[in-house]
Hints:
Blueprint: E1 2-3, H1 5-12, H2 18-21, E2 25-29, E3 35-41, H3 44-49, H4 54-70
Parallel strand pairs: 1-3
Antiparallel strand pairs: 2-3
Amino acid sequence: MLLGGVAAKALLRSKEGITRLRGRWHEVTMDDGQTLPALATLHPAYLLRNPAAKRDAWADLLLLQRSLSAQ
């Protein structure tokens, strides 16, 4: 789980903003070539300042839960 735009942009090597990156699965490539699934979501500090965005973050957490339950 990538929390916030800075983490998501750095690890995904993307220029897209967090609102475009969140809500779908991505792959993070490690230095050894291994790829890991990653889900970007909003940073907790952003959610404290913008309570209406909690709905989007909750949807991301439900997506994570579904993925973990399927394994």
